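Whiteboard transcription, Tuesday session. T.W. wrote the structure tokens on the left side:
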């Protein structure tokens, strides 16, 4: 109906115009003269439905419209993808003017209010250029490159005629544009279209003006998002109204009645009625108001609901009657108790429930052509309206009518609302849909039915809102063949009782009984056996009943369970899930009884989790292990078709199935290519869980050319020995597989065989060699160096004369007699070889070397007289003589110990003569020695 009314009033845009102009610049604010453009703002208006502005550029031209200013690109964000027509986008530079400014990115109310510096939604395409509205400027919305005017969609230029006309940027703008010539613009001015035709064509030409009448402190009065001035407001509303009309009527609160009691200017005795439609609705801070002067001026009364708990939780169906102070009479008493869904309050300046927020002299005074509105947000204008009740078609034919600025739902009467008249909704469909469109009527009835609804349909609608909540979870249980017990959940705090209805066909229900409030059970003792009954319950209230609960059905065909039996089937361990373990059967005293089965907790339910029931079959729900458990216990309930049940405990026996033998893993082997038999110890050889079974072993390889022999010898306690002998010179790899087989067989999916495979690699032995730096003949007393090669590590066997290097490749020896030295060489694979060398030792007195200097001063050098190698020629006698031939030292088996003393006293420095006698006819060894003293 609203859409039809608007068509009659001629406020729709033509399709072609909307298509040609998708978005326009609707308002500009030069908030200050700051060089950074702080507090400047731009308002865009979407005039094409479902518009995508991603990639669009917003920019300005500074320095008298000669220079590129700030440039911002709308990012690829969902916010910009599908804008409904009538959406206003307020773009603020750096900050909002309100101290508590919060960005608004929810377009559901047709308003977006964001900062240009919000990097989530904008990309700065102007570099260091500043978006700063100046005394002469032009703002443009465009596509394409951020520089220049190509791709312009709309522009708004203001300033002196000389500056605008001289601007090449203005001249090159071929899109629709507004040119506003204004004498002395500056900080604090805002610029807006006047919309004389309330059509998109108003945005091409000079239909705009400027004002600095509103200070930045009162920025909200500039009506951001709603339009400024009647023409602009009405145009924006005309765009939004069809969008709102698309959706369902969904109103939390409506104006249900307005009463024009008198024709006095103070609105004496005037009153109106609100109706809460949404349950638990919070009305705090909402505003109620009216518009005087045939709706062309916003000079009526304005009251704001106080921010108190009283309004925080209004129940649906509550009527709120608000009367002017003068309406009270001797019998009038305010009604502040909403428990009966009615409130009746006075609009006084000292009301504890509402604040009078209108300007001085603005009175709530209903006239013949008026509108009562409930709204959110600012007290001024019609923006953020929730609902309105309007007389005389809202004076819509007058362009300045505030009715034309409404895009919310409104209940309209074509009649005027003269003195003594009141308007009320006709409610033709008894639904919320009736509160939008020309569906109101006037009456002069003196019984206005405040709080109850006027007319049958309005009363019925209010009663439907006040109806208690329907009960739920209705259940029925057959106790005997002649008794059914009902129970339900009470979901309402305000029912007066419950009505119970019964049916035998599920279609036609008849009243059975009523019970009081808060009762949730009932016993029906009027039923007969073997009959199916259907029940439903509803709550009753003071003015209406709730919807019915769910329907519960039950049969009085009583069937007690007498026995429950279990017929088992053979179940083998490790059977797949769902294997049938047996079938359940029941008996009853009722031959027509049917039964359902379930696993229940209680004594004997130990293994319920291992089973499930499908129909009357007990099935496995887990892998059963005979070795862990050979019998399982379950508790089963049999429930008859009448709801009676009996529980029994049953045992399920599990049969063994042969399981595979076991054998510990065998590590891969590296074997030296020797011809002796080698062995590998095997462990954990068992027949599996069936420990009494016997095992047989076998072994095979993939390279028979590698082996002379390959066999297995069983042992005790799970041990066995694998023996093998390699062929001489045979090198390479073989996969050796050991197979164990028990005597349990493979019946019913059993397994009697198990294998282990490992890799055996035959590697070559090292070749050991020994060399001597002295050859194999050595004079007694001399030292020889033996060097072994052919491996990576070396160990020499113990032998006489070893000096050092027994665990290295190089051995130092000084044998006293002929000696054989043997080395064991190991290669990188751990394989070994041995080699030996014999050094033939001969006596050779020429190896004796006597030092001819003795300096016994305890400095560690020449403190003793040394004859090299004399330790290996022990049959000796040494004599030392002074110049007089006196023997000053004599010793047999000399061990290099003389320190130049005689009779424990130091000899004098000088030269002495020595003789060494080896006997056996050997030549004497003689010479001189010099004793030196400090």
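and on the right, the sequence the group agreed on:
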């Amino acid at each position: 109906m609203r859409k039809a009314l608007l068509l009659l009033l001629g406020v729709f845009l033509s399709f072609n115009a909307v298509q040609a102009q998708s978005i326009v610049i609707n308002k500009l604010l030069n908030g200050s003269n700051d060089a950074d453009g702080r507090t400047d703002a731009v308002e865009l208006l979407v005039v094409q439905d479902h518009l995508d502005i991603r990639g669009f550029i917003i920019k300005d031209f500074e320095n008298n419209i000669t220079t590129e200013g700030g440039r911002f690109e709308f990012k690829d964000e969902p916010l910009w993808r599908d804008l409904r027509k009538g959406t206003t986008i307020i773009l603020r530079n750096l900050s909002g003017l309100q101290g508590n400014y919060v960005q608004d990115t929810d377009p559901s109310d047709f308003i977006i209010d964001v900062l240009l510096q919000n990097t989530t939604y904008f990309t700065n395409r102007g570099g260091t250029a500043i978006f700063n509205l100046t005394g002469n400027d032009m703002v443009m919305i465009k596509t394409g490159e951020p520089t220049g005017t190509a791709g312009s969609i709309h522009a708004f230029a203001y300033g002196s005629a000389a500056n605008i006309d001289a601007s090449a940027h203005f001249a090159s703008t071929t899109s629709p544009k507004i040119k506003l010539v204004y004498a002395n613009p500056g900080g604090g001015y805002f610029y807006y279209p006047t919309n004389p035709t309330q059509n998109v064509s108003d945005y091409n030409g000079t239909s705009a003006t400027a004002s600095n009448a509103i200070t930045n402190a009162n920025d909200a009065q500039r009506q951001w998002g709603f339009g400024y001035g009647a023409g602009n407001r009405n145009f924006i509303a005309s765009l939004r109204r069809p969008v709102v009309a698309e959706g369902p009527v969904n109103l939390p609160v409506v104006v249900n009645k307005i009463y024009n009691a008198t024709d006095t200017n103070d609105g004496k005795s005037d009153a109106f009625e609100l109706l809460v439609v949404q349950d638990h609705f919070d009305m705090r801070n909402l505003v109620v108001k009216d518009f005087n002067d045939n709706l062309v001026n916003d000079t009526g009364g304005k009251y704001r609901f106080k921010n108190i708990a009283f309004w925080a939780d209004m129940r649906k169906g509550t009527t709120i009657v608000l009367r002017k102070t003068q309406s009270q009479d001797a019998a009038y008493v305010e009604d502040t108790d909403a428990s009966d869904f009615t409130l009746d309050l006075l609009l006084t300046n000292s009301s504890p429930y509402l604040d009078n927020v209108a300007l001085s002299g603005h009175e709530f005074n209903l006239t013949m052509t008026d509108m009562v509105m409930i709204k959110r947000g600012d007290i001024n204008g019609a923006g953020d309206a929730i609902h309105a009740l309007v007389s005389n078609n809202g004076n819509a034919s007058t362009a300045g009518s505030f009715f034309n600025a409404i895009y919310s739902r409104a209940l309209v009467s074509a009649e005027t609302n003269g003195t003594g008249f009141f308007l009320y909704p006709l409610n033709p469909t008894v639904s919320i849909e009736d509160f939008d469109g020309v569906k109101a009527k006037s009456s002069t009835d003196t019984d206005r039915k405040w709080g109850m609804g006027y007319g049958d349909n309005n009363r019925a609608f209010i009663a439907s809102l006040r109806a208690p909540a329907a009960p739920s979870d209705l259940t029925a249980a057959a106790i005997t063949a002649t008794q059914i017990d009902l129970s339900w959940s009470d979901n309402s705090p305000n029912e007066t009782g419950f009505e119970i209805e019964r049916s035998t066909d599920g279609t036609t229900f008849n009243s059975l009984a009523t019970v009081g409030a808060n009762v949730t059970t009932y016993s029906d003792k009027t039923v007969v056996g073997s009959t199916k009954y259907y029940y439903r319950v509803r709550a009753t209230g003071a003015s209406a009943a709730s919807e019915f609960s769910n329907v519960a059905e039950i049969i009085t065909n009583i069937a007690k369970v007498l026995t429950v039996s279990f017929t088992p089937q053979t179940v083998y361990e490790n059977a797949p899930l769902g294997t049938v373990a047996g079938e359940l059967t029941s008996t009853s005293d009722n031959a027509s009884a049917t039964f359902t089965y379930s696993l229940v907790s209680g004594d004997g339910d130990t293994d319920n989790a291992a089973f499930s029931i499908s129909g009357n079959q007990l099935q496995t729900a887990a892998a059963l292990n005979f070795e862990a458990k050979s019998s399982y216990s379950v508790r089963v309930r049999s429930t008859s078709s009448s709801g009676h049940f009996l529980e029994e405990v049953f045992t399920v026996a599990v049969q063994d199935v042969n399981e595979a033998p076991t054998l510990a893993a065998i590590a891969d082997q590296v074997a030296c290519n020797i011809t002796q038999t080698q062995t590998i110890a095997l462990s954990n050889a068992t027949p599996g869980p069936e420990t009494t079974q016997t095992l047989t072993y076998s072994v095979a390889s993939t390279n028979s050319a590698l082996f002379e022999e390959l066999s297995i010898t069983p042992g005790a306690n799970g041990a066995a020995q694998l023996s093998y002998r390699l062929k001489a010179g045979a090198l390479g790899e073989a996969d050796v597989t050991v197979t164990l087989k028990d005597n349990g067989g493979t019946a019913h999916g059993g397994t009697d065989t198990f294998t282990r495979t490992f890799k055996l690699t035959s590697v070559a032995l090292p070749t050991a060699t020994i060399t001597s730096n002295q050859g194999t003949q050595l004079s007694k007393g001399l030292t020889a160096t033996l060097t072994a090669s052919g491996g990576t590590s070396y160990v020499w066997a113990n032998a006489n004369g070893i000096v050092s290097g027994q665990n290295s490749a190089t051995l130092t020896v000084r044998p006293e007699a002929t000696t054989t030295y043997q080395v064991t060489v190991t290669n990188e694979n751990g394989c070994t070889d041995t080699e030996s060398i014999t050094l033939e030792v001969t006596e050779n007195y020429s190896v004796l070397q006597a030092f001819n200097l003795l300096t016994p001063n305890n400095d560690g050098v020449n403190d003793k007289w040394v004859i090299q190698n004399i330790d290996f020629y022990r049959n000796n006698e040494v004599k030392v003589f002074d110049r007089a031939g006196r023997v000053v030292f004599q010793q047999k088996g000399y061990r290099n110990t003389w320190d130049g003393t005689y009779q424990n006293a130091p000899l004098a420095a000088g030269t002495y003569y020595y003789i060494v006698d080896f006997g056996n006819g050997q030549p004497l060894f003689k010479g001189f020695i010099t004793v030196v003293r400090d």
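Someone added at the bottom: Confidence is low (pLDDT under 50) at residues 1-19.
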